[in-house]
Design a protein that fits this description.
With 212 residues, the protein is mostly helical. Helix content is 79%, strand content 0%. It contains six helices and no strands. Helix 1 runs antiparallel to helix 4, helix 2 runs antiparallel to helix 3 and helix 4 runs antiparallel to helix 5. The radius of gyration is 18 Å and the shape is globular. The structure holds zinc ion.
């Protein structure tokens, strides 16, 4: 969730490797699928923390899409793709934050069983993708980024699990809303970082740049 800002999943060389491209495609589809699963489950289960966690699957899906389609292009194209990703994540984060605040007053009835089972499913999905990518790790920074991203994704999923336990234990909506607000705030600040970096790149890099 948090440091998915700089989940540079693939290096430029890797993104041209046909086998790795297949893995990126699978990772993209798994993340998109889990994004929709969590969005739908968050509505059925009236859970804002699930909806906030869906943000991460969206952001990661965008990362894999960028690795697949934009990484080989010039830096200003990649910066543009990052702007689209940052704006979408930021707006989505603001939406979740305001929806959670609204429910703080109007009330909600999160379903801990749905929250818990979907969070477990999300954890398995994230770990499978991590194992798949780990085979293709290249260099220290690439390895570290895969590790950091999977760790943060797992923290997000476990936070939803804890919220589910908390909802049961306290028989209230507050654990769900609190976890949702924390995850959404982190996503908004991640979106801010993404946008800042992207605008920096657009300003400082001339049109014709060599991609490292
Ligand atoms: Zn992530």
């Amino acid at each position: 969730m948090v440091a998915c800002t700089d989940c540079s999943v693939a290096t430029k060389d890797q993104s041209q490797n046909p086998i790795f491209r297949k893995v990126l495609w699978i990772a993209l589809l798994v993340n998109l699928f889990m994004f929709f699963v969590e969005i739908i489950a968050s509505h059925i289960g009236d859970s804002m923390s699930l909806q906030a966690d869906a943000l991460d699957f969206f952001g990661d899906a965008a990362n894999y899409a960028i690795s697949l389609f934009v990484l080989g292009m010039a830096l200003h194209m990649r910066a543009r793709a990052s702007v689209v990703k940052g704006v979408t994540m930021g707006l989505f984060g603001l939406w979740v934050l305001s929806a959670a605040s609204y429910r703080a007053f109007s009330g909600s009835e999160p379903e801990p069983m749905i929250m818990g089972s979907i969070a477990l499913m999300a954890l398995v999905a994230n770990m499978s993708v991590a194992v798949m990518l780990y085979r293709f790790r290249e260099g220290d920074s690439n390895m570290q980024s895969i590790w950091l991203c999977s760790r943060n994704d797992a923290i997000g999923n476990v936070a939803v699990l804890i919220a589910a336990v908390g909802v049961t234990a306290t028989a209230s909506r507050w654990p769900d809303l609190m976890v949702a607000m924390i995850i959404a705030s982190l996503s908004i600040s991640a979106a801010y970082t993404i946008l800042k970096l992207a605008f920096q790149e657009m300003r400082t890099v001339p049109e014709k740049s060599v991609i490292s």
